[in-house]
Amino acid sequence: MSAVETAPSVDPTTPAPVDATLASDVNATQSTETKGSEDDQPVTIFHDRMNYNVKHPLHNEWTLWFDNPGKKANVQSWSQNLKEIVTFKTIEDFWAVFNNIVKVSRLDISSNYHLFKKGVRPEWEDPANEHGGKFSVQLPKNRTGEAINDLWLYTLLACIGEQLPNEDEVTGAVVSVRKVFFRISLWTKTSDNREVLDGIGKKLKETLNIPNMPLEFTPHSDAATKGPSETTGRFTI
Hints:
This protein is an alpha+beta fold. The protein is about 35% helix and about 25% strand. It has helices at about 20-40, 75-80, 90-100, 140-145, 145-160, 195-210, 220-225, and strands at about 55-65, 85-90, 110-115, 135-140, 170-175, 180-190, 215-220, 235. The chain is globular, with a radius of gyration of 28 Å. The protein starts with 17 loop residues before the first helix and ends with a strand.
C-alpha cells in the first residue's frame, strides 16, 4: 500500500448530503481527539518494553561528586579538586548514571565518589553537615575485591530509596579507595542523638550484610580537630 492514500473519487455534479458531511466531520474530530488523548497517556514498561516514558521520582534530588586529590592534598586543594558530576531526581536517571560511571573497584587510589542530597556539598563545613558526623566501615581490598561495587550500590539504594530510619538525618554517602582498603561512609546531620544514630547505623549494617565488621561513628568536629588519621570512632555498632 502506498504511504499516501489516494482520495476517493467524487462526482462534482452530485452534492453530498448535508447530514452525511456533518457526521463525517464529527467522526473525524472524535477520532483525532481520542488519538491525542491516547498519545498523552504515560506508557509503562508493562505496555511497551522498548519505548516507555514513565519516570519514577525520588523523594529527594541527589548529586554525584568525584575527587582524586592525591597524597599531598590539603583542605584547600581538596576542595578545588572536588567535581560535581550530575544531579538526578528519578530512579531511571539514577540507573543511567550508575551504569555509565567507572566502577569503584577500578578507580585510582585516593579517589572518592560522593553522593549527597542536592544543595549539600560533601564537606564538613557545609551547614547541613557541620553539626553531624559519619558512620564508616573499612573493607580490606584483598578480601572485598569486586564486591565493593555491590556494597556501594546497596548504600546508594538505601539512601535514595529512603530505606534508612530518620532519612531526613542522612545527608549523603562516600566511598573511598585507598591502597589496602575501601571505605564506605554515611554522613548525618547531627552527632548527639544516640538513639537516632543507633537506628541508622544498625540498618546500614544490615543493608550491607556485615554483621561481624565494626561500623564506627565519628562526629565531624572530632575529625576536623584531630585529623582523620588520628580520629577514633566515638562509638561502634
